[in-house]
Amino acid sequence: MRRAVPPRLPLASQRLIVITGKGGVGKTTVTAAFAQAAAAARRRVLAVEVGPGRLGTLLGAATVSHEPTRVGPRLAVARLESEAVLGDFVLSALRLRLLARRLLESTTFQVLAAAAPGLPELLVLHRVAGWLEERRLGRPAYDLVLLDAPASGHSLPLLAAPRTLGALARFGPVATLLRNMERMLHDPATTLVFLVTTPEELAVRETLELHQELDVGLGLSVGPPILNAVPRRRFTPTDVAALAALDPDDPHVVAARFHLERRRQAQAQYSTLRRTLGVSPVRLPLLFPPPETSGGIDALATDLARAAGLAA
Q1: Which residues pair with 30 in a beta bridge?
Q2: Which of 49, 76, 186, 213 has CB atoms 3.0–4.6 Å from 53's, for a disulfide?
Q3: Alpha-carbon span 235 to 142, nearest angstrom
Q4: What is the largest CA-CA distance in the chain?
Q5: pLDDT-derived band of residue 91, with 50, 70 and 90 as boundaries?
């Protein structure tokens, strides 16, 4: 049975937020806006992207590495890539840098690591768990870790990695590690997944399928969907009625009708999400200009802060 998740879920205890969605729906922009909103609410935030992306650029970082880079008060950003997280894991296991380097340079080891199902994804989660456990001056280094996960098709293997590898390792320290990962991901007080979509039929359909896989298939806690790039309401009902009397070939009328049709389609997709999932999606406006510009994601951060119950 699907767990009921309030559409306005306060982030009272969750420390790991995973944000994913179909490629091109703006999940990285949403992650950056969420990070800004949480930092403005005085949370110590680490925003993490998996693989090369533009999360650092959106948050104002000149460069991003696998070690957190501070980009503002209470806000840092990092990037996780397979090679770097594998090196960190081997070094932590062997402790001796010389032995770790020799193992990583071994062609046989590289082939085995690449072939192991779920291993690269597990190492990403292992690094994220390390940041969640990191402490400074007796308190958590980060109140909230935001994971900009890969697009839909690749986020499932990431979140399923502990279960995938758990079927192979049932005893010993590796099995303990996997159980701890599984516990972290399935604890609704610790982890929450948000799906980002745009108000388009294909994107919404993929979002519903991914929600089913995450909620029912993996048993994860999934928050209300985030409907991104929704056209703003620009015309009153009186304006709409007046358009019918105007020259249909006038370019301004054509533009107005195009906008109204996009609004109609967006509302239809909003209704589909709400009806199917039983929760009201969080709507974010279509941005003009693009989010990379100065202050480009401020409006999204404000809306997300309100939706998530983040009080400054």
Answers
A1: none
A2: 49
A3: 44
A4: 79
A5: low
102-153 confidence digits (pLDDT tens): 544 555 445 445 555 567 788 889 899 999 999 998 999 999 999 999 998 8
Question: What does the pLDDT look like over 230-261, one tens digit per residue?
Answer: 998 888 888 888 888 888 888 888 898 888 99
**C-beta of residue 81 within 8 angstroms of C-beta of residue 66:** yes
Which residue type sits at 273?
L
pTM value?
A: 0.87
> Distance (Å, rounded) from C-alpha 115 to C-alpha 138?
39
Q: What is the pLDDT of residue 218?
A: 95
Residue 8: inside a domain, yes or no?
no
Count of structural domains within the chain: 1
6 is a domain residue:
no
Q: 81, 121 in Cβ contact below 8 A?
A: no
Is position 30 within any domain?
A: yes
The position carrying tokens 């900009």 is 148
Q: Whose CA is closest to 273, among 262, 260, 282?
A: 282
Strand partners, 135: 140
In a domain, 3, yes or no: no
- Look at residue 199 in the predicted model and tell me its pLDDT: 96
CA distance 201 to 267: 11
CATH number for the domain spanning 82: value is 3.40.50.300
Place of tokens 């296991």: 93
Q: 37 pLDDT band (50/70/90 cuts)? A: very high
Cβ contacts of 35 within 8 Å, gap of 6 or more = 45, 47, 59, 75, 77, 146
Check if the beta carbon of residue 226 is closer than 8 Å to that of residue 199: no
Q: Can you give the residue range of the structural domain that contains 184?
A: 16-232+279-308
